[in-house]
Amino acid sequence: MMRKCAMFLFILGVACYIIMLILIKQPDEYFGQVYNVHIINGFTNNSSLPLVVWCNADDGADMGGRALQERDEFSWSVKTTFWKSTQYLCTMKNDNQRRSFQAFQRRRDIQRCSPTRECFWLVKEDGFYFSNDEIYWRKDFSWTLN
């Protein structure tokens, strides 16, 4: 009887420990969090030809296309969970340049978009720049595939 009681208490303790780790460490990753994704036209001379953006979610949802003039923005919200791999693939076209890239990828972006939960993409003549605060930008992709 004492042995069964000790085993029960041990299993109960391990279960409580695991639950506490989940709740303390990364509750957003397990229970879901909303992130805002923004694509901004950073071209400086495209008054006649807009930046065309077309995005699709990995679950097949087509978000449609947008024609962005200088400084225009296309944005949407993404709810992530531990149980679902959330990704958004966007294709950009300007003049003769065309490039597809992952605008949001849960595994990559839940860390780098935090703590603001904002993911900004500034598309310029030489490539795609990422920021989570619109102050510090880092070039992630070029227009050409190297």
From TrEMBL:
Keywords of the record = Membrane, Secreted, Self-incompatibility, Signal, Transmembrane, Transmembrane helix
The answer to whether the entry has keyword Transmembrane is yes
Keyword hit for Acetylation: no
Report the GO terms under cellular component.
extracellular region
Q: Where are the transmembrane segments?
A: 6-24
Q: What subcellular compartments does it reside in?
A: Secreted
Domain of life the protein comes from: Eukaryota
**Broad class of where this protein is predominantly found:** secreted
Note the Pfam families from the entry: Self-incomp_S1
Its GO biological process annotations read:
rejection of self pollen
- Similarity comment text for this entry: Belongs to the plant self-incompatibility (S1) protein family.
What protein name does the entry list? S-protein homolog
Q: To which species is this protein native?
A: Capsicum annuum (Capsicum pepper)
